[in-house]
Amino acid sequence: MPRAHEKQKKIERTNKSAALYRRVFGEVIASDNVQTILDVGAGDSDFAESVVQQGKSVERIDFDYATNPPVGENWEAADATDLGDFRGKYDVVISSFMMQHLDQKDQAKALQEMIGATVNNEGYRGVTAVYPVYKGNKLRERLEKAGFSDVAIVADTGANSTVELSLQEEHLAVYSTLYIVNNKELDDERKKTLTELIATSNALTRRKTMRDMARRAFMKPGVNTVAR
Ligand SMILES: C[S@@+](CC[C@H](N)C(=O)[O-])C[C@H]1O[C@@H](n2cnc3c(N)ncnc32)[C@H](O)[C@@H]1O
Question: Is the Cα torsion angle 225, 29, 180, 166 positive or negative in sign?
Fold first, then answer.
């Protein structure tokens, strides 16, 4: 009989509500102009379903889908650092709670690829939205200093929200969201400088805690419901 750890599969049950995503991505998702969304590192979150109910189309990608296909439609197994097949297609590209799992090099690459997956037409520019930014003030300062305020914004999400979150989720909504507009001026070289600046700021990386270690140790399918 296999021992407990041999039976474990690394499926992460996120259990986050649609309200949390509305709060952290807010207006960018709600806008009537936004019809097509790509959710990168979507895992098993309910975000797509909630947005589809509002009449928008959402494609979910995650490299884990190759071995753990999700429930529902419109998903593909893909790596955030290689989104060639998704280029220029989406009004908004979002990613929640994924960047913290990547090293700095892959964070920069994933950001470049995500910006590349947004539309860039004369009249309309796509937006990339990443949550959470753990060190919002630091990143905001860096972006301003380097002259990127026109394309990249670090917005606070916690205050003045009318959306109700569960007690378990409140601490998840205290960070900032990073928005990057696929501006015409954001050519490949500037995009590389911007994304490397973001990655090396460490703002998307979370300091590991004892709780993380415990969660990883006890991660099993269907029972990983520990609130984060
Ligand atoms: C903590 S879960 C977050 C899931 C979901 N976005 C949410 O908010 O609940 C992180 C997800 O990112 C995925 N992931 C990590 N690195 C990735 C990569 N390089 N490309 C695609 N997906 C990735 C993992 O497979 C996992 O499903």
Answer: negative
CB burial of residue 135 (10 Å; 0-12, 13-18, 19+): buried
Return the structure tokens found at 9. Answer: 């599969």
Q: Assess whether the C-beta atom of 184 lies below 6 angstroms from ligand 1.
A: no
Average pLDDT of 187-204? 96
Among 172, 224, 155, residue whose Cα is nearest residue 21: 172
Strand partners, 95: 130
Dihedral (Cα; 213, 80, 63, 12), 10-degree rounding? 30
Domains of the chain as residue ranges with CATH: 4-217 (3.40.50.150)
The response to whether residue 101 sits with its C-beta less than 6 Å from ligand 1 reads: yes
- Give the pTM: 0.86
Q: Best mutation site among 13, 24, 60, 64 for ligand 1, i.e. most ligand atoms within 8 A of its Cβ?
A: 64
45 pocket-lining for ligand 1 (C-beta < 6 Å): yes
**Is residue 94 lining ligand 1, measured as CB closer than 6 Å?**
no
Average pLDDT, the chain: 84
Q: Could you report the per-residue pLDDT of 55-103, keeping only the tens digit for each?
A: 889 999 999 999 999 988 899 999 999 999 999 999 999 999 999 999 9
- For tokens 């973001």, the residue is 198
